[in-house]
Task: structure prediction
Amino acid sequence: MKKLESAEDLLKFRDRSRAEIDLREGSKDILLTVHMGTCGIAAGARDVLATIVEELGAAGISRAGVQQTGCVGLCDQEPMLTVTDKSGAFFRYGRLDRAKTREIILNHVLRGTVVNEYLIKD
Result:
């Protein structure tokens, strides 16, 4: 972490931290669940989570929430992200990296267009 050198740095850090906490609290239109079991973490789920937080923050999106969960038993598809909309419909994306995650945020979360290429098919 960068060293805080002034009161202004501290205020920026506080605001950034509050925004990240807000992503995890309250009722939201879209819920983004990152699967963070051991297999997910080993496959890169931390990068997926970090990218989501960065992209939502950069876009100023407050209608989306972020949460973590454990393994869902699809280890070969990790890292995974489940996007759940307000109606309860969910879309599970797999084998993600930072670039694919950005594409999902841009298209699915911001524009409402499912990215079929990365969906896990049953």
